[in-house]
Specification:
- By secondary structure, the protein is mainly beta.
- It contains 1 helix and 21 strands.
- The protein has a 5-stranded mixed β-sheet. A 4-stranded antiparallel β-sheet has the order 6-7-8-9. A 4-stranded antiparallel β-sheet has the order 10-11-12-13, with no helix packed on it.
Length: 279
């Protein structure tokens, strides 16, 4: 177990029923793409395999049978957008949120997730999460006042968990009223999250420094029940087909002193016992 120099990862949401999400740093003006894809993962990292089935409105909406693409937009200026690629007819529609709701998303569209018939669009620099209908993109409300939010995970039908990177916390909100249900302190730089059997696993990426933990929150009580120790700056988290938890750690680079650099690593945990099986 490595020491946590400033105690304390990242998550992706892959398939939610009939949709996939591709997240990118995509500038429609310059046509430059610097991205990471959520369209495929190693077979062992089948994060959807153990999820409970998600209900949806089916394939009758305007944005069914395809994939969403989140486009960050320029940092500190301009607005990010959301695109939709229709896998049935091969067409691409840009700026789908604005075209439906007649307003922009905001600055730095960081991520998107789908839970049942709702989608959550996390706009990092604007400090908001947009709640929309997953089939037609119509707005169901906006959660505001967040501090550099990164990712959102649906908890049941009426709740969402948001990793609030700027305050080292996970915020739980009611999706109907957009009111705060609970705020749970975690470690440094919470990013990707994974929901499994009523537990929310939060990868703490270290922010601008170092961390090496995954915080485990019981969603029924909004309390921290465990902390998993990983390599430096965990930034990916998934459950495989055998029910084991995998955590990918990016390591650390000190641009001023290379002797402080830390290697990246990958770790596997037995979910039943919490024992480290790899790493």
């Amino acid at each position: 177990m490595p020491p946590t120099k400033n105690t304390v990862s990242n998550d992706f949401t892959l398939c939610r029923g009939y949709k996939a999400i591709y997240q990118s740093n995509f500038n429609l003006n310059t046509m430059r793409i610097n991205s990471w894809a959520l369209l495929a993962a190693l077979p062992i990292l089948a994060s959807c395999a153990k999820d409970e089935p998600k209900t949806s409105k089916g394939n009758n909406g305007d944005y069914a049978n395809g994939m969403f693409i989140t486009n960050e937009g320029p940092f500190q200026g301009g607005n990010g957008t959301l695109s939709f690629y229709n896998t049935t007819d091969g067409t691409l529609e840009n700026d789908v949120f604005a075209s439906v709701n007649l307003r922009p998303l905001g600055n730095v569209v960081h991520s998107m997730s789908i839970s049942g018939d709702q989608a959550f669009i996390v706009v990092n620099n604007s400090g908001v999460v947009e709640i929309v209908d997953a089939d037609d993109m119509s707005s169901n409300g906006t959660i505001t006042g967040l501090q550099q939010p990164r990712y959102a995970v649906g908890i049941g039908a009426n709740e969402v968990a948001i990793s609030n990177w700027g305050s080292n916390s996970v915020e739980f909100y009611n999706t109907t009223s957009q009111s705060l249900v609970a705020s749970v302190n975690v470690n440094t730089g919470p990013e990707r999250m994974l929901l499994h059997n009523g537990m929310l696993y939060v990868a703490n990426s270290g922010g601008f420094g170092l961390d090496s933990t995954v915080t485990v929150i019981e969603t029924a009580t909004h309390t921290v029940v465990d902390t998993l120790y990983t390599g430096y700056n965990p930034n990916g988290i998934a459950i495989d087909a055998n029910g084991d938890l995998w955590v990918l750690c990016g390591g650390y680079t000190d641009w001023n002193d290379a002797s402080n650099n830390e290697d990246g690593s990958i770790h596997r945990y037995d979910m039943a016992t919490g024992a480290v099986e790899l790493g």
